[in-house]
Known about the structure:
The structure holds 2 protein chains of 2 kinds.
Chain A: E1 4-7, E2 10-14, E3 19-25, E4 31-37, E5 44-49, E6 55-58, E7 61-65, E8 71-76, E9 85-92, E10 99-100, E11 104-109
Chain B: E1 5-7, E2 10-13, E3 19-24, E4 31-37, E5 44-50, E6 53-57, E7 65-68, E8 75-79, E9 88-95, E10 104-105, E11 109-113
Parallel strand pairs in B: 2-11
Antiparallel strand pairs in B: 1-3, 3-8, 4-5, 4-9, 5-6, 7-8, 9-10, 9-11
Amino acid sequence: GQQVMQIPQYQHVQEGEDFTTYCNSSTTLSNIQWYKQRPGGHPVFLIQLVKSGEVKKQKRLTFQFGEAKKNSSLHITATQTTDVGTYFCAGSGATNKLIFGTGTLLAVQP
Amino acid sequence: EPEVTQTPSHQVTQMGQEVILRCVPISNHLYFYWYRQILGQKVEFLVSFYNNEISEKSEIFDDQFSVERPDGSNFTLKIRSTKLEDSAMYFCASSYGSSNQPQHFGDGTRLSIL
C-alpha cells in the first residue's frame, strides 16, 4: 500500500538554527498537507500544496512540493522554542484517504 | 473558533469489553474521520465517513470496529471486543470537503486496555 516516509526521525537544533524535514511518498500524490503536533497535543493543520513544484511560505516556514508530486519538504528558518513538536506530512493519492508520514520530532534548545 | 470535541479524554477498559468513543465534529463539516496514534508513532487512518456511510477504511478497521452518526451532531467509534493492542490515542477529525481539504482534529481520547 501507499507509504509516506519522513527524514530525519528526530532533529535537535540550537535556537536560531535552521531545520528541514523531508517527506517521500511511494506513490504520486494529488496533494500534500503538513501538520504540527505539539507534545501531548493533536495534529494542527499548517498548509496544503496541490501543484507540482509549488512553494508556499508562512513567516519562517517554507513548504515545497516536488515536481513529480512524490516528495515535499518543510524548512524552518531561525528556529524558536515555540517550533518544538512533531511535523507530519500527509498525502492523498488515487483515493481520498489521507496517509500520514512517519513524522519528524523537532527539539529546540534555547 | 469552532473546534472538534472528543469525550472522554481518557478511557480505561478491560480487555474484551466494548468501548465507544465520542466526537462532535465542527457543525458545518461534511466529512468525518477517525485516526489512531500509538504512543510515539505516526497518525494512522482508520475510517472516513460521508453522507451517513463509510467512504473509506483502512486494513486496521476490521469487523471489531464500527462508526455511527446517531444524531445530527455526534460521531462515534465503537470497538466491540477490545484487545491490548487497541491501546492508543484515538483522534476524530472533520473537514468541510473531502480529504483534499484541511482536517480539524479533536484533542483525542487516550484508550488504555488492561
